[in-house]
Every structure is written in C-alpha cells, then in structure tokens.
Write a structure and sequence with these properties.
This protein has 506 residues and is an alpha/beta fold. The protein folds into three domains: 45 residues; 175 residues, 3-Layer(aba) Sandwich (Rossmann fold), CATH 3.40.50; 173 residues, no CATH class. Helix content is 66%, strand content 8%. The protein contains 16 helices and eight strands. The strands form two sheets. A six-stranded mixed sheet has the order 2-3-1-4-5-6, with helices on both faces. Strands 7-8 form a two-stranded antiparallel sheet. Helix 13 packs across helix 16 and helix 14 packs across helix 16.
Length: 506
C-alpha cells in the first residue's frame, strides 16, 4: 500500500514540476519580446524562489517524518533495561551538577558513582532481611559455608549492614554480595534506628531474602508488603525447618504462600535449616552423643541461582534505575532547599529595604508607593531563583493582587495595630514619624515574600485556598506573639536605631 501511494505521489510531483517549467518558459518568452535581459533576470529570480520553496518543503517533510517516529535511542531504551538504567545514571549526574551545596554534592556524587559501578561491573546485591530471631546471619553463614557472622540469640546482634562476597555455583554472570541487616521489631530507640537502617539497605537490593522462622507476623508482613510494592523481588525463606515435623512444615509453608499471594510467587517461598539444632545420637552400645547436623540450604541456593540466571540482569538494571532516580530526587530536594534559602535571604533584604525607605520618607503615602515598587522587584528576583522568570508587568500585577487580598483580609490594619503596640512596648520613648509605618511595611513585605516563595517553590501553585489561603497560612505562622516581639526588636536595631543616628548627625 505504501509503495503504490509513493508512486502516485511521485507522478503528481512530476506533473506539477512539468507545469511549472512550462509556465516559466511561457513567462520568459513573453518578456523577451519586450526586453531579453529583463526576461533572463526574471527567469533566474523565479527559479531561485522555486528552488528555495522546494528545499523548505523537503526540510519540513523530513522534520515531520523524524518527529512522527521514535528515535533509535528511545527504541533501544524501551527494549534494553540496561540502557534505561544507564540513562538514569546520566540524568542523575546532570541533576547533581546543579546542586550548590558542595558537601551534599560530593555525597550524591559518591552515591551515583557506586550505582554506576554496580551496573558496569554487574555486581549483584542480595540483602538478607527479617526479625532478629529468624536466623538471618545463620542463613548467610550456611550459604557461604563458614562462620562469618555472629549468631548469638540476643536480639540486636547485627548492628549495621555487613557485606560478604558470595560465589554461587552455576552463576558466573557477575559478582554477588550478601548483605546482613539489623533485625526488625527490636525494642527502644536503638531498635527503631537499626530497623530504619535495615529498610534502607533493603531498598538497595537487587534480590531480597526475607527470612522467617514461623508464620508471618505484622512486624514482618508490613515491611515485606511495602518492599514488594516498591518493586523489590523477594524470596520468602522459611528457616529452622528442623524444628518442625513434616506435616507442620508443609502447613506453615502453605500458610506463608497464602499470606504473600500477589506479592511473592509460590515458587519463591523456600525452606531451609541454616543452623540445625544438635541431636542426641545413641550407638549400638547405648552410648549417647551430641551430633551437629549439616546446614540444609540447597533449595534456597538453587532458587537464588536459577532466579539470577534468568532474571538477574533485568533485576540489576531495574534496581540501578530505582537507585539513580532516588539520587536524582535527593539532588532535586537539595536544589529546592538551596533555592528556598536564597529566596529567604532575598525577602529579608527587601523587607528591611522597605522599612528603611518608609522610615526616612517625609511625604505621607509616598513610602507606600516606594514599598510597592520594591515588592515588584522582590517578586522578579524570587521568580528568577526558581527558574521561572516573569515580566515586570506580571510581577506588578501579582504584587498588586496580593496587596489587594491583604487589604480585603484586613491583614494590613491588623498587622499595623499589633506591631504598633509591640513597638511602643519595646522601644520606650521613641515612637515618632514613620516608625510604625516602617515596621509594618517590613512585616507586610515579609509576609508577601514568604507567600511568593511558597508559590514559586510549588511550581506556581498557591495550593488549597488560593492566594488568600497562602496568606492566611503565613499570617498564622508569623503572627505569633513571640515572633512579633522578635521582629520588632530586630526592626528597632536595624532601622529605628539607624534613623536616630542619622537624625543626630543632622
């Protein structure tokens, strides 16, 4: 179908080209009767115009054709999770470059380079997670074939994430590291801190081994569910099978499968005995001795190897993508916080500029006009900080609207009244001229500046309640008695004292 359409389009094009050439020949012949040089000039001009139009048309069609189909890079990313992970690392690096805090920038850079190294070296992270009594460290010891971690029954033995290199039979696509984590459900502040650290380590896993020694409790099920919803691939490891009869083991395994249905597949519920209890053995003579059975983790090791062979690269790429996105989010948060802090400094500068202008101005009403002009400039600077530059007219309109809302809400009169009383109480013997007007102007500029900071920080959204709601929120936050007292004290130090000094010099 496309071939026939292209052939028809070509024939139409040739017919049009023939008609145009014939028309040009006719125009040239008629002009040549009057003046041959004029006919030649006109013909050359028409040919130049014709070819210019043709080139522009071809360029437009080429651009439209390219825009209508996905680029090779986009197609590669859709088909290759490794490429998507690599792009997320690049995007995170670009985001980090915008962070101004050097300490935060170095920390984020170190983290994204670790993520990038894991992707390049195909380094898989298997995190062992669960309560302190489930036998996490014993599972690691059994998989590694030796005593590499303390397995004391006391809760809280593992204080921090502990890494071990793991060589897995039948899997040679990359390196493995097993990470032991603090236990869940420990008591006290220390227990909560260790659990938080365990959750952080779990979110960095390519594969999660969730170890239990009985049916799931809420303290175990809730984090398991949240990690599964986050996209973490997990194996539910039922440890200490040696303590159960065959019938009880089958019943618990069945119950675990039912509890995690929809979160973990039935084939990913495995059973092991990482550190079997000693048993009494009686020989033919009746002598009893204690025997330590060997660890039984064959099913678990086989399932890990099988899963990583089939899905390892996809799991690694997906986890790198998730980790890089989290780094990007933290970078954006750092950039956002820096912008908010810069905006606060801008507001502080403009509020005291407003106070100074209104205090020294001798003409009633002129100070208010100057303050309005200052507010316009403040809006422009705050908008620029957040990467949303606006025109002077737009800034004037926004500042004017905010001022009208303040008047409508009664913020101006209430603030002037409150500040006037506080000023009289704080600056004994000196309430003259434009003192109250100056301090009130500074306070209202601060309210406006904070409201505009919130507006631009939230992508030009006033939030619930619109502009009035944002002002009410700011007025409640900064209308407290202790805040007013501190503000008036600072105003007296910055503006009123300077005004007295200037008056004394004159």
């Amino acid at each position: 179908m496309a071939t026939w359409f292209g052939a028809a389009l070509a024939l139409v094009g040739l017919a049009l080209l023939g008609w145009v050439l014939s028309s040009l020949g006719e125009v040239h012949a008629r002009l040549a009767e009057i003046s041959a040089p004029l006919a030649n000039v006109v013909l050359i001009g028409l040919i130049v115009v014709l070819f210019s139009i043709l080139l522009l048309g071809l360029r437009f069609l080429w651009a439209a054709a390219r825009a209508g189909r996905p680029t090779a890079t986009a197609a590669d990313v859709a088909a290759d999770p490794h490429a998507a992970a690599g792009q997320s690392v690049v995007a995170a690096r670009q985001q980090i470059e915008l962070v101004s805090d050097e300490i935060a920038k170095r920390a984020l850079t170190d983290e994204i380079e670790t993520v990038s190294h894991d992707l390049a070296a195909q380094r898989y992270t298997v995190v062992v997670f669960g309560t302190g009594s489930a036998g996490k460290t014993s599972v690691i010891n059994a998989l590694l074939g030796g005593g590499v971690g303390e397995t004391d029954p006391t809760i809280g033995t593992t204080q921090e994430g502990v890494e071990h290199a793991y060589v897995l039979d039948g899997f040679d696509d990359g390196r493995l590291r097993l990470v032991d984590t603090p236990g869940l459900g420990e008591m006290g502040d220390g227990g909560l801190m260790r659990e938080q650290r365990a959750r952080e380590l779990a979110t960095e896993a390519d594969l999660l081994l969730f170890v239990v020694d009985q049916d799931l409790r809420d303290v175990e099920f809730k984090p398991l569910k949240s990690l599964a919803q986050l996209g973490k691939r997990s194996l539910l490891v039922f440890n200490k099978r040696d303590l159960y009869t065959s019938e009880d083991e089958a019943a618990v395994r069945r119950r675990l499968g039912e509890r995690v249905a929809g979160l973990i597949g039935e084939e990913d519920v495995v059973v092991c005995a990482a550190a079997p209890a000693e048993i009494i053995v009686r020989d033919a003579s009746g002598t009893e001795t204690l025997d330590k059975p060997t660890a039984d983790t064959g099913e678990l090791a086989e399932r890990i190897a099988d899963l990583l062979r089939r899905e390892g690269k996809v799991l690694l790429a997906g986890n790198v993508l998730l980790r890089a996105q989290r780094v990007s989010e933290r970078a954006r948060d750092a950039i956002h916080q820096a912008r908010v802090q810069q905006a606060q400094r801008v507001v502080t500068r403009f509020q005291w500029t407003t106070a100074a202008v209104m205090f020294v101005n001798p003409v009633p009403g002129l100070g208010a006009l100057a303050a309005a002009a200052i507010n316009y400039q403040m809006v422009l600077e705050i908008a620029k900080l957040f990467g949303t530059p606006i025109t002077i007219d737009a800034a004037k309109r926004m500042a004017s609207e905010l001022g009208q809302v303040m008047l409508k809400m009664g913020v101006v009169s209430v603030a002037t009244n409150i500040l006037g009383k506080a000023l009289k109480a704080s600056v004994v013997g000196y309430v003259a001229g434009g003192a109250i007007e100056a301090v009130a102007g500074a306070y209202l500029t601060k309210l406006a500046g904070e409201a505009f900071t919130d507006y631009f920080a939230h992508d030009q959204d006033w939030g619930e309640g619109g502009m009035q709601g944002a002002l009410e929120k700011r007025f409640q936050l900064e209308g407290r008695v202790e805040f007013i007292a501190a503000f008036v004290k600072e105003a007296a130090e910055r503006v009123l004292a300077k005004g007295r000094g200037d008056a004394g010099q004159t």
